[in-house]
Every structure is written in C-alpha cells, then in structure tokens.
Amino acid sequence: xxxxxxxFTPSGQGGPAAGWFxxxxxxxxxxIYFLILRPQKKQQERHRQLLASLQRGDKVLTSGGILGExxxxxxxxxxxxxxxxxxxxxxxxxxxxxxxxxxxxxx
Length: 107
What we know:
Helix content is 41%, strand content 25%. With 107 residues, the chain is an alpha+beta fold. It has two domains: 2-49; 55-97, SH3 type barrels, CATH 2.30.30. It has a five-stranded antiparallel sheet with strand order 4-3-2-1-5, with helices on one face. The longest helix is centred in the N-terminal third of the chain and has 38 residues, at 15-52. It starts with a helix and ends in a 10-residue tail after the last strand.
C-alpha cells in the first residue's frame, strides 16, 4: 500500500521522502538484476552453447550424476553408454562435458 500512497498523493505533499522511496525501489530492482537475473541468463547461455557443441565420443556427466560416453545424438535426445548400459537422456539433462579443454568448460 505505501506505493499507492506515494503515487496518488497530491502535488507538493510527497516531499523529499517520496523521491527517496522511489530511489530505494529502483536500487532494489538494480541489485536484484545484477546479482540474480543477469548471472542466471549468462549461465543459461553457456549451458545452451555446451549442448550445441556436444559430439559423439564426448565423456559427459548428466544432471542425475551418471557418467558416460555419448554414442548417438538426436535433436533433443542423447544416447549415453555407461558401463554396459545404454541410456537415452534428454539433451537438456547433460550437465557437463568432461573431456574438453579448460577454456571450453562452463564455469
């Protein structure tokens, strides 16, 4: 309700407190953007690039903790060989590629 009170106060009655409140609100949104939203978007973009660079023979770690080697790729599915088993997992569930160089790994 304080936001409505600031927006609908008659002209001249808001005073410096109204301007300070708007500044604080803007500062909170900026902090949320730079500490939460922006890093999350960067992480999503790195993961999208990682999935696009996936190739046969890559050693991968799934989000479920399964280690294996990519044996077949489809648009949204990856066949992973882990031990004697072959598993079909969603491409989006590949968490990391383990046999790439350090500069290609997402941080």
